[in-house]
Amino acid sequence: MQSPRFPIRNLNFTISGRLLKPEPPGAPCHPEQPSFNNATCAYVAAAWGNSTFHDQDPISVDYGNWSNDSCLPSPVYPCSARSYPVYVVNASSALEVKHGVDFARDKNIRLIVKSTGHDYLGRYISTPHQTLSTWTHYIRGLSFHAGFTPKGYGYQIDTTAVTAGASLQMAEIYNEAGMRNQTIVGGMDLTVSLGGIITGGGHSPLSATYGLGADQVLEVEIVTAGGEILTANECQNSDLFWAVRGGGGHSFGIVTSFTVKTFPTAPVTQLNILIGAAFDSEAYWNRMAYVLSQSPYLSDSGVSAYTYIARQVNATTSSFEGIFFAFNTSITALLEVFAPIQQYINFTWPSQTLVEAAPTQFPDFIPWWLSNVDPTGVGKNDLLGSRLLDGQALSHPLPVLENTLRNAVPNSPPAIAHIISGKGVWNAKPRGGAYVHFAELATENALRAQYTEALRKVNPNSGCYLNEACLHFLPPKYQYAFWGTNYPRLLQIKHKVDPLNVFWCHPCVGDEEWAEGGGAYVGYDSMR
Protein backbone atom coordinates (compact mmCIF):
# COMPACT_ATOMS: atom_id res chain seq x y z
CA MET A 1 0.00 0.00 0.00
CA GLN A 2 2.92 2.33 0.44
CA SER A 3 3.94 1.95 -3.20
CA PRO A 4 4.03 5.17 -5.28
CA ARG A 5 1.43 3.57 -7.53
CA PHE A 6 -1.20 4.35 -4.93
CA PRO A 7 -1.97 8.08 -4.84
CA ILE A 8 -2.68 8.11 -1.13
CA ARG A 9 -1.99 11.84 -0.96
CA ASN A 10 -4.85 12.45 -3.37
CA LEU A 11 -7.21 10.59 -1.06
CA ASN A 12 -6.00 12.66 1.89
CA PHE A 13 -6.66 15.86 -0.07
CA THR A 14 -10.13 14.67 -1.09
CA ILE A 15 -11.15 14.07 2.52
CA SER A 16 -9.67 17.36 3.77
CA GLY A 17 -6.66 15.88 5.53
CA ARG A 18 -8.59 13.29 7.53
CA LEU A 19 -6.40 10.35 6.45
CA LEU A 20 -4.51 8.81 9.38
CA LYS A 21 -1.46 6.56 9.53
CA PRO A 22 -1.68 5.53 13.18
CA GLU A 23 0.86 3.65 15.25
CA PRO A 24 -0.24 0.50 17.09
CA PRO A 25 -2.09 1.41 20.31
CA GLY A 26 0.57 -0.05 22.62
CA ALA A 27 3.45 1.73 20.83
CA PRO A 28 4.15 4.33 23.58
CA CYS A 29 5.42 1.48 25.77
CA HIS A 30 8.08 0.29 23.28
CA PRO A 31 11.45 2.09 23.10
CA GLU A 32 11.90 1.32 19.39
CA GLN A 33 8.64 3.10 18.48
CA PRO A 34 8.62 6.83 17.57
CA SER A 35 5.85 7.54 20.10
CA PHE A 36 7.66 5.92 23.05
CA ASN A 37 6.91 7.89 26.21
CA ASN A 38 6.84 6.59 29.77
CA ALA A 39 4.01 8.86 30.91
CA THR A 40 1.86 7.99 27.90
CA CYS A 41 2.67 4.31 28.40
CA ALA A 42 1.43 4.47 31.98
CA TYR A 43 -1.85 5.98 30.78
CA VAL A 44 -2.29 3.38 28.01
CA ALA A 45 -1.53 0.48 30.34
CA ALA A 46 -4.04 1.76 32.92
CA ALA A 47 -6.74 2.30 30.28
CA TRP A 48 -6.18 -0.97 28.40
CA GLY A 49 -8.96 -2.78 30.26
CA ASN A 50 -11.56 -0.08 29.53
CA SER A 51 -13.55 -0.24 26.29
CA THR A 52 -13.61 3.56 25.97
CA PHE A 53 -9.86 3.57 25.28
CA HIS A 54 -10.14 1.10 22.41
CA ASP A 55 -13.22 2.82 21.02
CA GLN A 56 -11.39 6.16 20.82
CA ASP A 57 -8.33 4.71 19.09
CA PRO A 58 -8.63 4.53 15.27
CA ILE A 59 -7.32 0.95 14.99
CA SER A 60 -7.50 -0.74 18.41
CA VAL A 61 -10.06 -3.41 19.30
CA ASP A 62 -11.46 -4.63 22.60
CA TYR A 63 -10.07 -8.16 22.42
CA GLY A 64 -6.37 -8.49 21.62
CA ASN A 65 -6.48 -12.02 20.23
CA TRP A 66 -7.93 -10.57 17.00
CA SER A 67 -4.82 -8.42 16.55
CA ASN A 68 -2.59 -11.36 17.53
CA ASP A 69 -1.61 -9.40 20.66
CA SER A 70 0.89 -7.77 18.33
CA CYS A 71 1.49 -4.58 20.31
CA LEU A 72 0.58 -4.84 23.99
CA PRO A 73 1.32 -1.96 26.41
CA SER A 74 4.43 -3.62 27.81
CA PRO A 75 8.04 -3.58 26.56
CA VAL A 76 8.32 -7.25 27.57
CA TYR A 77 6.48 -8.18 24.37
CA PRO A 78 7.31 -7.18 20.77
CA CYS A 79 5.37 -4.46 18.96
CA SER A 80 4.41 -4.91 15.32
CA ALA A 81 2.00 -3.03 13.06
CA ARG A 82 1.30 -6.05 10.84
CA SER A 83 -1.99 -6.83 12.54
CA TYR A 84 -3.40 -3.35 12.00
CA PRO A 85 -4.49 -1.40 8.90
CA VAL A 86 -1.92 0.90 7.32
CA TYR A 87 -4.14 3.92 6.63
CA VAL A 88 -7.42 5.02 8.18
CA VAL A 89 -10.10 7.29 6.73
CA ASN A 90 -11.22 9.23 9.80
CA ALA A 91 -14.69 9.83 8.41
CA SER A 92 -17.04 12.45 9.81
CA SER A 93 -19.66 12.29 7.04
CA ALA A 94 -21.18 9.95 4.50
CA LEU A 95 -19.32 11.86 1.77
CA GLU A 96 -15.94 11.08 3.36
CA VAL A 97 -16.97 7.44 3.67
CA LYS A 98 -17.83 7.49 -0.04
CA HIS A 99 -14.40 8.83 -0.97
CA GLY A 100 -12.73 6.03 0.98
CA VAL A 101 -14.93 3.41 -0.66
CA ASP A 102 -14.23 4.84 -4.12
CA PHE A 103 -10.48 4.78 -3.51
CA ALA A 104 -10.46 1.19 -2.25
CA ARG A 105 -12.67 -0.02 -5.10
CA ASP A 106 -10.76 1.78 -7.86
CA LYS A 107 -7.34 0.70 -6.53
CA ASN A 108 -8.51 -2.84 -5.67
CA ILE A 109 -7.46 -2.50 -2.03
CA ARG A 110 -8.98 -4.46 0.81
CA LEU A 111 -11.36 -2.18 2.75
CA ILE A 112 -12.31 -2.77 6.38
CA VAL A 113 -14.55 -0.75 8.68
CA LYS A 114 -14.24 0.09 12.37
CA SER A 115 -16.94 1.62 14.52
CA THR A 116 -16.06 0.96 18.18
CA GLY A 117 -13.95 -2.21 18.01
CA HIS A 118 -16.41 -4.14 20.20
CA ASP A 119 -16.54 -7.40 18.21
CA TYR A 120 -16.27 -10.97 19.49
CA LEU A 121 -15.73 -12.21 15.91
CA GLY A 122 -12.83 -9.97 14.95
CA ARG A 123 -14.50 -9.00 11.68
CA TYR A 124 -12.78 -5.63 11.62
CA ILE A 125 -9.25 -6.60 12.49
CA SER A 126 -8.80 -10.11 11.03
CA THR A 127 -6.03 -10.10 8.37
CA PRO A 128 -5.84 -6.29 8.14
CA HIS A 129 -2.26 -5.92 6.86
CA GLN A 130 -2.01 -3.78 3.72
CA THR A 131 -5.61 -2.61 4.09
CA LEU A 132 -7.44 0.69 4.17
CA SER A 133 -9.80 1.18 7.08
CA THR A 134 -12.78 3.49 7.42
CA TRP A 135 -13.27 4.66 11.02
CA THR A 136 -16.83 5.87 11.57
CA HIS A 137 -16.35 7.08 15.17
CA TYR A 138 -16.97 10.74 14.27
CA ILE A 139 -20.11 10.21 12.22
CA ARG A 140 -22.40 11.82 14.74
CA GLY A 141 -25.82 13.45 14.78
CA LEU A 142 -28.91 12.81 16.88
CA SER A 143 -32.41 14.02 15.95
CA PHE A 144 -35.65 13.09 17.71
CA HIS A 145 -39.00 12.96 15.91
CA ALA A 146 -42.55 13.19 17.24
CA GLY A 147 -43.58 11.28 14.12
CA PHE A 148 -41.51 10.05 11.17
CA THR A 149 -42.07 10.10 7.42
CA PRO A 150 -39.54 7.89 5.59
CA LYS A 151 -38.21 9.23 2.32
CA GLY A 152 -40.59 8.34 -0.51
CA TYR A 153 -43.56 7.71 1.79
CA GLY A 154 -46.78 9.57 1.35
CA TYR A 155 -47.69 9.51 5.02
CA GLN A 156 -46.21 9.82 8.48
CA ILE A 157 -45.64 6.74 10.63
CA ASP A 158 -47.36 7.22 13.97
CA THR A 159 -44.39 6.62 16.25
CA THR A 160 -41.75 8.61 18.05
CA ALA A 161 -38.30 8.00 16.60
CA VAL A 162 -34.66 9.05 16.62
CA THR A 163 -32.17 9.40 13.77
CA ALA A 164 -28.65 8.66 14.99
CA GLY A 165 -25.22 8.42 13.44
CA ALA A 166 -24.42 4.74 13.14
CA SER A 167 -21.44 5.00 15.50
CA LEU A 168 -23.29 6.71 18.33
CA GLN A 169 -23.08 4.53 21.40
CA MET A 170 -25.60 3.32 23.91
CA ALA A 171 -24.59 5.75 26.67
CA GLU A 172 -25.06 8.75 24.37
CA ILE A 173 -28.40 7.66 22.93
CA TYR A 174 -29.88 6.41 26.21
CA ASN A 175 -28.97 9.63 28.01
CA GLU A 176 -30.40 11.92 25.31
CA ALA A 177 -33.54 9.83 24.97
CA GLY A 178 -33.93 9.68 28.75
CA MET A 179 -34.07 13.49 28.94
CA ARG A 180 -37.17 13.18 26.74
CA ASN A 181 -38.65 10.34 28.82
CA GLN A 182 -37.94 7.94 25.97
CA THR A 183 -35.65 4.99 25.31
CA ILE A 184 -34.67 2.67 22.46
CA VAL A 185 -34.20 -1.06 22.04
CA GLY A 186 -30.42 -1.06 22.49
CA GLY A 187 -27.65 -3.00 24.19
CA MET A 188 -26.29 -3.20 27.73
CA ASP A 189 -22.70 -2.15 27.05
CA LEU A 190 -21.75 1.53 27.33
CA THR A 191 -19.67 1.66 24.14
CA VAL A 192 -21.53 -0.67 21.80
CA SER A 193 -22.61 1.31 18.75
CA LEU A 194 -26.13 1.41 17.40
CA GLY A 195 -24.92 0.13 14.02
CA GLY A 196 -23.23 -2.92 15.49
CA ILE A 197 -26.32 -3.89 17.44
CA ILE A 198 -28.81 -3.52 14.60
CA THR A 199 -26.78 -5.19 11.86
CA GLY A 200 -26.37 -8.24 14.10
CA GLY A 201 -30.05 -8.44 15.08
CA GLY A 202 -29.69 -6.82 18.48
CA HIS A 203 -30.95 -8.43 21.67
CA SER A 204 -31.73 -5.92 24.38
CA PRO A 205 -33.05 -5.57 27.93
CA LEU A 206 -36.21 -4.32 26.20
CA SER A 207 -36.53 -7.24 23.75
CA ALA A 208 -39.12 -9.08 25.85
CA THR A 209 -41.36 -6.02 25.55
CA TYR A 210 -40.62 -4.60 22.09
CA GLY A 211 -38.56 -7.11 20.09
CA LEU A 212 -35.04 -6.99 18.69
CA GLY A 213 -33.10 -3.89 17.74
CA ALA A 214 -33.44 -4.82 14.07
CA ASP A 215 -37.23 -4.81 14.45
CA GLN A 216 -37.27 -1.09 15.26
CA VAL A 217 -35.57 0.36 12.17
CA LEU A 218 -37.56 2.75 9.98
CA GLU A 219 -34.83 4.00 7.63
CA VAL A 220 -31.06 3.93 7.04
CA GLU A 221 -28.51 5.97 5.12
CA ILE A 222 -25.90 3.74 3.51
CA VAL A 223 -22.82 4.14 1.31
CA THR A 224 -22.72 1.34 -1.25
CA ALA A 225 -19.78 -0.43 -2.88
CA GLY A 226 -20.46 1.67 -5.98
CA GLY A 227 -19.97 4.87 -3.98
CA GLU A 228 -23.63 5.88 -3.89
CA ILE A 229 -25.08 7.48 -0.77
CA LEU A 230 -28.55 5.97 -0.57
CA THR A 231 -31.59 6.13 1.67
CA ALA A 232 -33.07 2.69 2.26
CA ASN A 233 -36.45 1.99 3.78
CA GLU A 234 -39.55 -0.09 3.14
CA CYS A 235 -40.39 2.03 0.10
CA GLN A 236 -37.03 2.43 -1.69
CA ASN A 237 -33.90 0.28 -1.87
CA SER A 238 -35.97 -2.19 0.10
CA ASP A 239 -33.61 -5.14 -0.48
CA LEU A 240 -30.78 -3.23 1.19
CA PHE A 241 -33.13 -2.15 3.97
CA TRP A 242 -34.07 -5.77 4.60
CA ALA A 243 -30.48 -7.04 4.48
CA VAL A 244 -28.77 -4.59 6.84
CA ARG A 245 -31.20 -5.32 9.67
CA GLY A 246 -29.57 -8.46 10.99
CA GLY A 247 -27.66 -9.44 7.86
CA GLY A 248 -24.31 -8.45 9.35
CA GLY A 249 -22.33 -5.24 9.35
CA HIS A 250 -20.27 -4.00 6.41
CA SER A 251 -21.36 -6.77 4.03
CA PHE A 252 -23.68 -4.67 1.89
CA GLY A 253 -22.31 -1.17 2.46
CA ILE A 254 -21.38 1.19 5.26
CA VAL A 255 -24.45 2.41 7.14
CA THR A 256 -23.94 5.99 8.30
CA SER A 257 -27.25 6.58 10.09
CA PHE A 258 -30.24 4.70 11.43
CA THR A 259 -33.73 5.95 12.22
CA VAL A 260 -35.32 3.76 14.88
CA LYS A 261 -38.47 3.80 16.98
CA THR A 262 -38.33 5.18 20.49
CA PHE A 263 -40.57 4.13 23.37
CA PRO A 264 -41.77 5.74 26.60
CA THR A 265 -39.44 4.99 29.46
CA ALA A 266 -40.94 2.88 32.23
CA PRO A 267 -40.20 1.65 35.76
CA VAL A 268 -38.01 -1.45 36.03
CA THR A 269 -38.31 -4.00 38.84
CA GLN A 270 -35.32 -6.24 39.54
CA LEU A 271 -34.61 -9.35 41.61
CA ASN A 272 -31.03 -10.43 42.34
CA ILE A 273 -30.80 -14.21 42.45
CA LEU A 274 -28.03 -16.29 44.02
CA ILE A 275 -27.96 -20.08 44.30
CA GLY A 276 -24.96 -21.90 45.76
CA ALA A 277 -24.03 -25.54 46.26
CA ALA A 278 -21.03 -27.78 46.83
CA PHE A 279 -18.57 -27.71 43.94
CA ASP A 280 -19.75 -29.77 40.95
CA SER A 281 -22.23 -31.65 43.11
CA GLU A 282 -25.32 -33.49 41.96
CA ALA A 283 -27.40 -31.00 43.93
CA TYR A 284 -25.85 -28.09 42.02
CA TRP A 285 -26.70 -29.50 38.59
CA ASN A 286 -30.19 -30.49 39.78
CA ARG A 287 -30.84 -26.87 40.72
CA MET A 288 -29.30 -25.44 37.55
CA ALA A 289 -31.44 -27.68 35.35
CA TYR A 290 -34.59 -26.73 37.21
CA VAL A 291 -33.94 -22.98 37.20
CA LEU A 292 -33.10 -22.92 33.47
CA SER A 293 -36.13 -25.08 32.68
CA GLN A 294 -38.24 -22.20 34.02
CA SER A 295 -36.93 -19.79 31.38
CA PRO A 296 -39.93 -20.25 29.02
CA TYR A 297 -42.33 -19.57 31.90
CA LEU A 298 -40.41 -16.46 32.96
CA SER A 299 -40.20 -15.25 29.37
CA ASP A 300 -43.95 -15.72 28.91
CA SER A 301 -44.41 -13.65 32.07
CA GLY A 302 -42.42 -10.73 30.64
CA VAL A 303 -39.29 -11.37 32.71
CA SER A 304 -35.78 -11.03 31.24
CA ALA A 305 -32.48 -12.02 32.84
CA TYR A 306 -28.71 -11.75 32.63
CA THR A 307 -27.23 -14.66 34.57
CA TYR A 308 -23.94 -16.49 35.13
CA ILE A 309 -23.39 -20.18 35.84
CA ALA A 310 -20.13 -20.45 37.78
CA ARG A 311 -19.15 -24.10 37.94
CA GLN A 312 -16.13 -23.34 40.12
CA VAL A 313 -16.24 -20.23 42.28
CA ASN A 314 -13.52 -21.78 44.44
CA ALA A 315 -12.37 -25.25 45.45
CA THR A 316 -15.59 -25.98 47.35
CA THR A 317 -18.37 -23.94 45.72
CA SER A 318 -20.42 -23.70 42.54
CA SER A 319 -22.95 -20.91 42.06
CA PHE A 320 -25.61 -19.37 39.87
CA GLU A 321 -26.32 -15.66 40.05
CA GLY A 322 -27.95 -12.99 38.00
CA ILE A 323 -30.49 -10.23 37.68
CA PHE A 324 -34.11 -10.91 36.72
CA PHE A 325 -36.13 -7.87 35.71
CA ALA A 326 -39.37 -6.71 34.14
CA PHE A 327 -40.70 -3.39 32.86
CA ASN A 328 -43.94 -1.79 34.03
CA THR A 329 -44.23 -4.48 36.69
CA SER A 330 -44.67 -3.91 40.42
CA ILE A 331 -42.55 -5.59 43.07
CA THR A 332 -45.60 -7.56 44.16
CA ALA A 333 -46.30 -8.77 40.62
CA LEU A 334 -42.70 -9.86 40.05
CA LEU A 335 -42.64 -11.76 43.34
CA GLU A 336 -45.87 -13.49 42.31
CA VAL A 337 -44.18 -14.66 39.10
CA PHE A 338 -41.34 -16.17 41.14
CA ALA A 339 -43.60 -17.64 43.85
CA PRO A 340 -44.07 -21.11 42.25
CA ILE A 341 -40.32 -21.34 41.55
CA GLN A 342 -39.56 -20.43 45.16
CA GLN A 343 -42.10 -22.96 46.41
CA TYR A 344 -40.57 -25.76 44.32
CA ILE A 345 -37.07 -24.92 45.54
CA ASN A 346 -38.18 -24.69 49.18
CA PHE A 347 -39.90 -28.08 48.92
CA THR A 348 -37.11 -29.85 47.02
CA TRP A 349 -34.09 -28.22 48.68
CA PRO A 350 -35.32 -26.80 52.02
CA SER A 351 -32.00 -25.16 52.89
CA GLN A 352 -31.71 -23.28 49.58
CA THR A 353 -32.47 -19.55 49.33
CA LEU A 354 -33.50 -18.20 45.93
CA VAL A 355 -33.65 -14.43 46.33
CA GLU A 356 -30.36 -12.86 47.41
CA ALA A 357 -31.70 -9.40 48.21
CA ALA A 358 -34.98 -7.54 48.48
CA PRO A 359 -36.39 -6.62 45.06
CA THR A 360 -35.68 -3.12 43.80
CA GLN A 361 -37.83 -0.86 41.66
CA PHE A 362 -36.14 1.80 39.55
CA PRO A 363 -38.19 4.81 38.41
CA ASP A 364 -37.19 4.37 34.76
CA PHE A 365 -34.75 2.64 32.43
CA ILE A 366 -31.68 4.92 32.77
CA PRO A 367 -31.01 4.47 36.53
CA TRP A 368 -31.62 0.72 36.16
CA TRP A 369 -29.17 0.51 33.25
CA LEU A 370 -26.51 2.58 35.01
CA SER A 371 -26.71 0.35 38.08
CA ASN A 372 -25.99 -2.76 36.00
CA VAL A 373 -23.65 -1.64 33.22
CA ASP A 374 -19.91 -2.36 33.40
CA PRO A 375 -17.40 -0.62 31.07
CA THR A 376 -14.51 -2.97 31.86
CA GLY A 377 -13.63 -6.52 30.92
CA VAL A 378 -11.75 -5.82 27.67
CA GLY A 379 -8.09 -5.51 26.73
CA LYS A 380 -7.66 -9.27 26.97
CA ASN A 381 -8.00 -12.36 24.82
CA ASP A 382 -11.63 -13.40 24.69
CA LEU A 383 -13.61 -15.98 22.76
CA LEU A 384 -17.37 -16.22 23.09
CA GLY A 385 -19.54 -19.06 21.80
CA SER A 386 -23.31 -19.05 21.90
CA ARG A 387 -26.38 -21.06 21.06
CA LEU A 388 -30.01 -19.98 21.00
CA LEU A 389 -32.19 -22.36 23.02
CA ASP A 390 -35.94 -22.30 22.51
CA GLY A 391 -38.75 -23.39 24.79
CA GLN A 392 -38.74 -26.91 23.37
CA ALA A 393 -35.06 -27.41 24.20
CA LEU A 394 -35.59 -26.10 27.73
CA SER A 395 -38.58 -28.41 28.19
CA HIS A 396 -36.47 -31.59 27.98
CA PRO A 397 -36.64 -33.81 31.08
CA LEU A 398 -34.46 -32.41 33.87
CA PRO A 399 -31.87 -35.23 33.65
CA VAL A 400 -31.29 -34.33 29.98
CA LEU A 401 -30.78 -30.66 30.87
CA GLU A 402 -28.46 -31.62 33.73
CA ASN A 403 -26.28 -33.67 31.39
CA THR A 404 -26.26 -30.87 28.82
CA LEU A 405 -25.17 -28.30 31.38
CA ARG A 406 -22.40 -30.54 32.72
CA ASN A 407 -20.98 -30.77 29.19
CA ALA A 408 -21.60 -27.14 28.27
CA VAL A 409 -20.32 -25.25 31.32
CA PRO A 410 -16.54 -25.06 31.87
CA ASN A 411 -14.90 -24.78 35.28
CA SER A 412 -13.82 -21.29 34.28
CA PRO A 413 -14.88 -18.76 33.17
CA PRO A 414 -18.59 -18.74 34.06
CA ALA A 415 -21.13 -19.55 31.37
CA ILE A 416 -23.57 -16.79 30.46
CA ALA A 417 -27.26 -17.65 30.28
CA HIS A 418 -29.62 -14.85 29.26
CA ILE A 419 -33.39 -14.73 28.95
CA ILE A 420 -33.78 -12.21 26.13
CA SER A 421 -36.83 -13.34 24.17
CA GLY A 422 -40.50 -13.12 25.02
CA LYS A 423 -43.68 -11.75 23.55
CA GLY A 424 -41.95 -8.65 22.24
CA VAL A 425 -39.75 -10.77 19.97
CA TRP A 426 -42.46 -13.21 18.94
CA ASN A 427 -45.04 -10.51 18.19
CA ALA A 428 -42.72 -7.95 16.60
CA LYS A 429 -43.88 -6.64 13.24
CA PRO A 430 -40.72 -5.24 11.64
CA ARG A 431 -40.85 -3.68 8.23
CA GLY A 432 -38.90 -6.76 7.00
CA GLY A 433 -35.79 -8.15 8.72
CA ALA A 434 -33.08 -10.72 8.06
CA TYR A 435 -32.50 -11.80 11.59
CA VAL A 436 -33.96 -14.96 12.32
CA HIS A 437 -8.84 -15.00 27.65
CA PHE A 438 -6.26 -16.47 29.58
CA ALA A 439 -5.85 -19.93 28.12
CA GLU A 440 -3.73 -21.05 25.21
CA LEU A 441 -5.91 -20.25 22.19
CA ALA A 442 -5.65 -23.69 20.57
CA THR A 443 -6.82 -25.28 23.81
CA GLU A 444 -9.42 -22.57 24.33
CA ASN A 445 -10.86 -23.17 20.85
CA ALA A 446 -11.22 -26.90 21.41
CA LEU A 447 -12.82 -26.44 24.82
CA ARG A 448 -15.29 -23.81 23.67
CA ALA A 449 -16.21 -25.95 20.66
CA GLN A 450 -16.95 -28.81 23.04
CA TYR A 451 -19.18 -26.65 25.23
CA THR A 452 -21.04 -25.10 22.30
CA GLU A 453 -21.58 -28.53 20.72
CA ALA A 454 -23.27 -29.74 23.90
CA LEU A 455 -25.84 -26.96 23.56
CA ARG A 456 -26.31 -27.67 19.85
CA LYS A 457 -27.14 -31.32 20.58
CA VAL A 458 -29.99 -30.42 22.91
CA ASN A 459 -31.44 -28.06 20.25
CA PRO A 460 -29.94 -29.14 16.86
CA ASN A 461 -32.15 -26.91 14.73
CA SER A 462 -31.45 -23.73 16.65
CA GLY A 463 -29.10 -20.98 15.55
CA CYS A 464 -26.39 -18.71 16.95
CA TYR A 465 -26.53 -15.01 17.75
CA LEU A 466 -24.30 -13.28 15.19
CA ASN A 467 -22.84 -10.71 17.59
CA GLU A 468 -21.95 -13.30 20.25
CA ALA A 469 -20.46 -16.21 18.34
CA CYS A 470 -16.86 -17.31 17.84
CA LEU A 471 -14.94 -17.56 14.60
CA HIS A 472 -12.88 -20.56 15.70
CA PHE A 473 -15.69 -23.04 16.26
CA LEU A 474 -18.47 -22.07 13.93
CA PRO A 475 -20.36 -25.00 12.37
CA PRO A 476 -19.36 -25.89 8.77
CA LYS A 477 -22.41 -24.13 7.33
CA TYR A 478 -22.46 -21.34 9.87
CA GLN A 479 -24.33 -19.08 7.45
CA TYR A 480 -27.48 -21.07 8.19
CA ALA A 481 -26.83 -21.01 11.94
CA PHE A 482 -26.83 -17.20 11.76
CA TRP A 483 -29.47 -16.52 9.11
CA GLY A 484 -31.37 -19.76 8.46
CA THR A 485 -33.43 -19.83 5.29
CA ASN A 486 -32.83 -16.10 4.81
CA TYR A 487 -29.25 -16.78 3.69
CA PRO A 488 -29.83 -17.44 -0.04
CA ARG A 489 -31.65 -14.13 -0.37
CA LEU A 490 -28.94 -12.31 1.58
CA LEU A 491 -26.28 -13.77 -0.73
CA GLN A 492 -28.29 -12.74 -3.78
CA ILE A 493 -28.49 -9.16 -2.49
CA LYS A 494 -24.75 -9.21 -1.75
CA HIS A 495 -24.00 -10.20 -5.37
CA LYS A 496 -26.32 -7.48 -6.62
CA VAL A 497 -25.06 -4.54 -4.55
CA ASP A 498 -21.37 -5.51 -4.27
CA PRO A 499 -20.38 -7.55 -7.34
CA LEU A 500 -16.68 -6.67 -6.90
CA ASN A 501 -16.62 -7.68 -3.22
CA VAL A 502 -15.42 -4.29 -2.08
CA PHE A 503 -16.74 -5.23 1.36
CA TRP A 504 -15.32 -8.47 2.72
CA CYS A 505 -15.15 -9.78 6.25
CA HIS A 506 -15.34 -13.12 7.99
CA PRO A 507 -17.75 -14.47 9.01
CA CYS A 508 -20.02 -12.38 6.78
CA VAL A 509 -22.43 -12.89 3.90
CA GLY A 510 -20.55 -14.11 0.82
CA ASP A 511 -17.23 -14.80 2.53
CA GLU A 512 -17.37 -18.48 1.53
CA GLU A 513 -16.60 -17.40 -2.03
CA TRP A 514 -13.13 -16.19 -1.05
CA ALA A 515 -10.07 -17.71 0.60
CA GLU A 516 -6.77 -16.42 1.90
CA GLY A 517 -3.82 -17.14 -0.37
CA GLY A 518 -0.40 -15.59 -0.82
CA GLY A 519 -1.07 -13.02 1.88
CA ALA A 520 -4.23 -11.79 0.15
CA TYR A 521 -7.85 -12.80 -0.25
CA VAL A 522 -8.47 -14.52 -3.56
CA GLY A 523 -11.76 -15.46 -5.18
CA TYR A 524 -12.16 -19.21 -5.61
CA ASP A 525 -12.44 -18.74 -9.37
CA SER A 526 -8.95 -17.18 -9.34
CA MET A 527 -7.50 -20.20 -7.55
CA ARG A 528 -8.65 -22.85 -9.99
TrEMBL record:
Keyword match Cell wall biogenesis/degradation: no
InterPro entries (UniProt xref): BBE, FAD-bd_PCMH, FAD-bd_PCMH-like_sf, FAD-bd_PCMH_sub2, FAD-linked_Oxidoreductase, Oxid_FAD_bind_N, Oxy_OxRdtase_FAD_BS
Cofactor(s) named in the record: FAD
Annotated ranges, domain FAD-binding PCMH-type: 81-265
Signal peptide bounds: none
Any GO MF annotation of the entry: FAD binding
Coiled coil: none
UniProt keywords, alphabetically: FAD, Flavoprotein, Oxidoreductase
Record-stated family: Belongs to the oxygen-dependent FAD-linked oxidoreductase family.
Protein name: FAD-binding domain-containing protein
Species, as recorded: Glonium stellatum
